[in-house]
Amino acid sequence: MSSMPSQDRKRKISWIDFIVVAVVIGFFVFIAQRISSVLIYKWDWSMVAPYIFYFDDDTGEWVANLLVQGLATTVRLALYGIVISALIGVIMGFCRTVNNLFLRMVARVYVEFIRNMPPIVFIFVFYFFISSQIMPLLGVDDFARNASPATLELIRFFAGDPLLFSNFISGLICLAMFEGAYITEIVRAGIQSIPRGQWEAATSVGLSRFHVLRYVILPQAVQRIVPPLANQFINLIKDSSIVSLISIQELTFMAVEVGVSTTRVFEVWIITAVFYFVICYGCAYTFTRMERRMGRSRR
Amino acid sequence: MNESVTAPVIELSGVSKFFDQFQALREVDMDVRLGEKVVVCGPSGSGKSTMIRCINRLESHDQGRIVVDGIELTHDMGNILAVRREVGMVFQQFNLFPHLTVLENCTLAPMRARKLSREEANRVAMEYLERVQIPDQANKYPAQLSGGQQQRVAIARSLCMKPRIMLFDEPTSALDPEMIKEVLDVMVELAKEGMTMVVVTHEMGFAKTVADKMVFMDHGEIVEVAPPQTFFNDPQSDRTKQFLSQILSH
């Protein structure tokens, strides 16, 4: 049933398509020509390549260098960020829909506070607050400093360099809080998009409020939430580049470093772009498949 | 007849309800006895739906008392849940759960609210789906059924909770004419089995066959209460006469 539109879609190519393609190709040829004639830039990928992987003569092994380390941090930020922000979003989004005025106010204030502020401003303010106040309070620094070698290995695996552990956590919290506000709105809209009749029918057969939500409202809301949520997760991955400004050593931060030290700015940024694209597209692809599978189980 | 059969299972006394400034119910008094079939009619906006929605507290009343099956409806959530488990409701728009199959629609509440096992809930559900004559559709989704079939599933879904009282809020108003009969047939069967029913409907033929008591409402008030014989042949109030002449004129 859901595959019907794509079957109806026209596959024929008309002469307009040829013109459009020709114009696009012409445009790129023009740009390439301008670049080669006007911009005096000697491409040199060999200087940048070692920053991805280099061969260590002493150990005789290939070692991941700065760009890949940055990529790893970005992937970690993305993964944990998605989980934490989704958690915040579901809880706060639910709070936005309850009768309790206090909970509604808390969620509302959270959302309005964050979405009406540029991410960079929010992160500057909150990073310094969290890293200088909250982290010492929780004893994160001491924990990382006094950890046993085994724990250190764990930290290294899950969060990268233990010396930067506290920074990493602060940045992660900022990112998750920021994206959580948008997910809150997505979840709220999803819950509220379910017709009132569903609530009424479910309560009238004697289900408790929790059961109504769990078995009737949320399953239907999730189907509507998934597409905008996928979009927000991709935004989260891209927005994670903002935390480079507070010295979290993720991909963008490393790209700046490598760009400065090698002066091969274009090469570095093109590689960075490819890295980001691969992660984001991977995420988008996963969600498209998930959506399709959910659509299938429905009808 | 013994005492428990004649005692009212639904008692409304002096019930008023406001939507902001608008008064939807004006000191409504009504009794329904066990096994009694009450048909409520009246022009649109007369408060019929609001009244039966107060009986299972989909709407809360602002004044007066509502006692259902010996339990008074207040803000106490435990009482409200207890009442809702004894009172089934069928809606104009069916309101089936679109993400669940017909069978799952019927088993959800018995499993969660009555704690039946899946096997037991399935058995009960199939029994009622047979009663409304659609056991063969059990594994389809609501969107695959016709309106009449959906409404019959909705009736079965309510019955699976084994309620003592069934409320019907214009159950045939959203149906195509050729599907009205199949739903009314199920309701007539239910009435014959002795179910206590409060039905808001414009189906006067159904009312004449089934009702023990007709209730006519206008502007949030109960204007007239009478057995169908008297109600249709010798209505007392002018408003009732006018209403009947309008809907029976064709």
Give the total of beta strands of chain B.
Answer: 10
- Rg of chain B, rounded, reads 18 Å
How much helical structure, as a percent, in the residues of chain A?
over 70%
Q: Helix/strand-derived class of chain A? A: mainly alpha
Q: How does the overall form of chain A come out from the CA principal axes?
A: globular
What is the number of helical segments of chain A per DSSP (H or I, 4+ residues)? Answer: 12
Q: Counting H and I runs of at least 4 residues, what is the number of helices of chain B?
A: 10
Shape of chain B: globular
Counting DSSP E segments of at least 2 residues, the number of strands of chain A comes to 2
Entry summary:
The complex is a heterodimer of chains A (299) and B (250). With 299 residues, chain A is mainly α. Chain A contains twelve helices and two strands, in the order H-H-E-E-H-H-H-H-H-H-H-H-H-H.
Q: What can you tell me about this protein's structure?
A:
The complex is a heterodimer of chains A (299) and B (250). Chain A has twelve helices and two strands. Chain A has helices spanning 4-8, 15-38, 66-95, 101-115, 119-138, 140-145, 149-159, 165-192, 196-204, 209-239, 251-262, 265-298, and strands at 53-56, 61-64. Chain A is globular. Chain A is an all-alpha fold and 299 residues long. Chain A has one domain: MetI-like (MetI-like fold, Orthogonal Bundle), CATH 1.10.3720.10. Chain A has a two-stranded antiparallel ribbon with strand order 1-2. The longest helix of chain A is centred in the last third of the chain and has 34 residues, at 265-298. Helices cover 75% and strands 3% of the residues of chain A. Residues 1-5 of chain A have low confidence and may be disordered. Chain B is α/β, with parallel strands linked by helices and 250 residues long. Chain B is built from ten helices and ten strands. Chain B has a six-stranded mixed beta sheet, with helices on both faces. The radius of gyration of chain B is 18 Å and the shape is globular. Chain B starts with a helix and ends with a helix. Chain A binds chain B through residues 195, 197-198, 200-208, 211, 215-216, 219-220, 223, 298-299, and chain B through 56, 58, 81, 84-85, 87-89, 91, 93, 95-99, 108-109, 112-114, 141, 143-144, 154, 157-158, 161.
